[in-house]
Amino acid sequence: MPPGPRGGDAIDAAIDDSGAIGFVSVCRGDDPTSRYLTGLDAEFDVVYVRLPGETHLRVPSTVDIPDGDAASIRVDDRPAGQAAAAVLAAQAETGTVLTPQTVPHDAALHLESAGYELSSTTAVQDARATKDAAELDAIEGVQRAAKRAISAAAVILADAHVEDEALVWSDAPLSTERIRRQVNATLAVEGVDSAGATTVTTGTRGGRESAVELVPGEPIVVSVSPRGPTGYRGALARTFVVDADGGWERRAHVACAAARDVALVEADPGADAGFVGSEIRAETAAFGFSMADEVTRDVGGGLGLSAREDPPLDGDAELATGNVLRVRSAITHATHGRVELTDVLVVEDDGPRYLTDAPTTLDPSRWTE
Asked: What domains, with CATH codes, occur in the chain?
């Protein structure tokens, strides 16, 4: 379990580089940044103050003071800016204070009226983009659960049979909703939260919000983005076809698989993240699919305590060792439906690797071999 607060070293470096006296953030409830900075799974607001080498948290009197060996935690019911200023005063009565761009306006006013000049920093955002060993272990554990959940869907589809041009499983018509429930049940058994992100879609008939009965020959996309007990997310999507005829969906799947492989070639430390994203799109389109109308724009980006973090795969950031990326290749057609493959990749010193070895096949029976 990833221990305690994070980001302190990165904030200290930013303080030192800028000549500031400290850093202040107002952490809102269970916001991922709050969990990252405080190490707490809290539903209440926390005033976070970092002095060089020291973390100070101020919480309201309406809650029990949480345990926090790595931080000084005290009750303070004053407005956030005033509570932070009181901590800063032990270091200096004036000076520059670093804050994220999201610092509330009223907190900023209180800090400025107390004599502090504010300067925006992306230190926390940048630190979150690179995962340490404990964070990577947490994400990898969620990915294992995601693989088992997708496997549960594959087993159901492999066991289904065709009756009156529909798929039947366990003596009843098989629908997107029945699969979604089984996938979520598997995630629960694995000890992770579906986070409301499990989707099962088929063909061109929807399936995201309602139960759609499944038929042979249509691509069925099962996608999960579960959240583990420490808050870290995973992401996995696979496409299945029962009784495929080898038509459009086969060609689309070959294109998505090739695009998926491109990330293993291009996502090295020092590579341009936007270039990796453009190569994924270009490889997908190389199989004759329209870049404008069929190839997905969302090819992924950073993943951690949030499903979407830095670095995005459509920006100009440089990939670094420790980046964990959601890599997505997908093709959508107005008549045939959608094919998608999504995985989680980690950038390591000797190159990238996917965190699971989940099969990519369209044939669900291959998952049971």
From this structure: 8-128 (3.40.350.10), 133-368 (3.90.230.10)
